[in-house]
Amino acid sequence: MKEKYNKLKICVNITNMEETKRNKYIVVDAINKFLNTTWGMLVVLLVVVLFAIIVRIGMMPFREVNGDTYWFQAPWTTYYRNHGGIKAIGDLPYSYIKYKGKNYAYGTNEFEQYFAQEGAVLYQCDYLAGYLNLMVLFSYLPINSYRVCKAIGLMVDLVTATGILFISWRVTNKNRLLSILACSLYLFLPTILTNSGIWGQCDGLYTCLIIWALYFIISDRPWFSMMFVGFALATKLQGIFIIPLFGYLWLKKGFKLVSNYSISNVYNLYSFSLWWHEF
User: Fold this and answer.
1) Angle between helical axes of 38-59 and 145-171 (0-180°, round to 10)
2) What is the pLDDT of residues 141-153, one digit of tens each?
3) Of 60, 137, 208, 232, which sits with the fewest C-beta atoms within 10 Å of its C-beta?
4) Geometric angle at alpha carbon 217, from 212 and 220, rounded to 5°
5) pTM for the whole structure
6) Residues 86-92: contacts with CB within 8 Å, 24+ apart?
7) pLDDT in tens, 186-236
């Protein structure tokens, strides 16, 4: 009797497992059918993007005043606002002054008070033109200087996620579910949320440009790819770590060498914006 009961129990468990699997397949199949329609994919992407924006807006008040934003990024934004926005393109904005062993950020009363004092040492921006030009444009937003840095991060995250979506679309043979998952995973990674949403850092900007450079590689558009590498280098020099990949592609895959000139052209164009107003 006990053996029959155990056998019956095993049969019931197997049946339940099979039913659970069937239910999973039904759910996955329903999701795929929904995503296979253009409107279905657009609706899911819209929900993901809106949620990502809401989360980042909700994070803006957190750690508004931290080391980098207080001493560097926020003062640069304030500088551009005080000097006419686009009219100040090419200026190296002020960061802070050091006077009698203490630092005073640009935009504070103490900065104005001690700026002209003998012995005051002025520290200016040391970033490349790519990020600064973007900061000029975002300085027109009606939000405080600290949140401008996070607004830039928000925009960059969305553009990066779009690049990841396009890359996934190609490498997965137009698998909509995997493409959306890859895009969503990037948008909600804790490290990404912390870096741009809480700290307001700009590291995502050159990463974004490299992602798009990779997209144009797999799309067989080397000119555009190298242009985006140029943009990345004009934003942060860490973009140089992608260069060996292009060397490999040139040696092994017949990557067009002439397209490499677009790196220097874009870099020079951005650099030119640092001093064009002097003429």
Assistant:
1) 150
2) 998 888 898 999 9
3) 137
4) 125
5) 0.80
6) 86/136, 86/137, 88/136, 89/132, 89/133, 89/136, 89/273, 89/276, 89/277, 90/273, 90/274, 90/275, 90/276, 90/277, 90/278, 91/277, 92/124, 92/125, 92/274
7) 999 999 998 888 888 888 898 999 999 999 988 888 888 888 888 888 788
